Amino acid sequence: MPATLTSLRIRNFALVDDLLWEPEAGFTAITGETGAGKSVLIGALKLLLGERADRALIRSGEETCLVEAVFEGVEDPRVAGLLEEAGVEACEEGRLLLKRSISTTGTGRQFLNGSPCTLGLLRSLGELLVDLHGPHDHQSLFSRYQQTRLLDGFAGLDPQRESFASARRTLTQLEHERDELTAHEQSLARELETLRHQCQEIEAAAPDPAEEEVLLGRHRAAANATRILELCQTLLSRISGEGPSLGDGVAELVRTTRELARLDSSTEGFSAQTADLAEALARLDSGLQAYADSFEADPAALAAIETRLDTLQSLKRKYGATIEEVLAFFHDAAARLTALESRAARSNTLDAEIAAAQDRLSAIGAALTKARLAAAKALEKLVSTDLADLGFAKSGFSISWVPSSGPLGNEIAEFLFSPNPGEEPRPLRMIASSGEISRVMLAIKGVLAAQDDVALLVFDEIDANVGGEIAAKVANRLRQLSEGRQVFCITHLPQVAAAASRQFVVNKEMRLERTRTTLTSCEGEARVEELVRMLGGQSPEADAHARALLKSPKPPKPPKPAKPSR
């Protein structure tokens, strides 16, 4: 069982001051005198479906009007998807809360599950939850998309349609990829050339983060070779050269401290220290001599160092302030180069993949078209048979196909109806008579009941120009339709009202010098009296007829959805 409207509250709307209605699943009839206000329920539902608000609907003397509804058992994933996409709270335990208010200032507010929402979201949800059939246009079957979807469901073609949509998405993605590559072909070639040059330049230089500091030290030494040798000679002559030197002085210190130690053993530490000093001076002399002997002023080595430093400096000017940044640039450029080279190579395989995707889409589309054409013939026959039962003995129902390039297939369905022989078949949305369109919709809904997952069907003025045997067939069809969903019917036909599992009466009454519309459950003898009124007035025959209508066999009442604890 689809979702069920379990509560509808209307405040300060037209002639309604405060009305709380808690309908049940199954077939509910709404009756009453002409002008009593039965259209108020339709108007309230239209507000909740996101239709344009009219401030004239606000009850005289009031500032705002309010309409609230609760749907239980909402499990349609499309509803959940719409709520999630809009950032609205999800349905808790399958309960969907709708609320809309309008004010005399022209402002209005609407809420879903307590979250503010747009009218567009209300309209989108309304298309999934409610169909209104009567002198208004909120009917999902006016949509070619819905007609195509229902026909595919009737024929079991939903998997094929999804396969077509998937194949079309794949082809579109491939074509978009090819177009993007083509559009950027020249810039891609330029970028590839630049990246290759940059990577080759850095790779050829092979910079090392630790190298630069070493090179700078070597460059300083090589650039000051002459002065370095002069300093070495000066130091060596001071340490061990001819004439007074540090070596001679330290040797004298060693001899003197040794003699002091012989005379006083407590000074042996001084002797040891001067010995260490002599040894350290000897090591210094030896090291300086070895350094001076190995050092050469080599102009070629200096030039090589300067060339290498220039190379590193050039890399830093182009690719980063440090060698680390240069290497990071290299890794990024190399990764980008690999990606672009792969992308360039991709263009060589795209054409073949696109051709294969086109062939697959064409094959799936052709098979889907063939199956749809066969299914359309069967559906036309079934609906035409039902239309004949509903009083259109000489009407025509057919399905035409409109070429399409969308995700539904190579074509979309258009349901056509001709009420009389010789008349041009017209799309359903162009049928002027509300009574005709309601009965046509009833026939289609009956045939496609298993595929149509709209939760609530509301029929208004379905009894226009109908009576007798046709009225009984309309009643029976509504009763059958209610076995799988919730059906409301505003009717003047006693046959239809008696077929309902529940009946409500709309009345207009005066209270405190104000007119107001009420909605009352009609049961037992009160229901008999209402049917008698609908049959034309008080008489034994009318009373007997009313009781006979109520005794007609009815299908079991569908179970009322359990209300979760609040």
Explain what this protein looks like in three dimensions.
- By secondary structure, this protein is an alpha/beta fold.
- The protein has a domain at 210-321.
- It has 17 helices and 15 strands.
- The protein has helices spanning 39-48, 77-86, 119-129, 144-155, 158-183, 185-205, 211-223, 225-240, 246-263, 268-294, 299-319, 323-389, 434-447, 468-481, 494-499, 524-535, 540-551, and strands at 4-13, 16-21, 27-32, 64-72, 96-103, 108-112, 115-116, 130-133, 396-403, 411-418, 426-427, 456-460, 486-490, 502-511, 514-522.
- It has a 6-stranded antiparallel β-sheet, with helices on one face. It has a 6-stranded mixed β-sheet with strand order 8-12-13-3-14-15. The chain has a 3-stranded antiparallel β-sheet with strand order 9-10-11.
- A hairpin with a 2-residue loop joins strand 6 (108-112) and strand 7 (115-116).
- Helix 8 runs antiparallel to helix 10, helix 11 (299-319) runs parallel beside helix 12 (323-389) and helix 16 crosses helix 17.
- The protein is elongated and about 160 Å long.
- The relative contact order is 0.14.
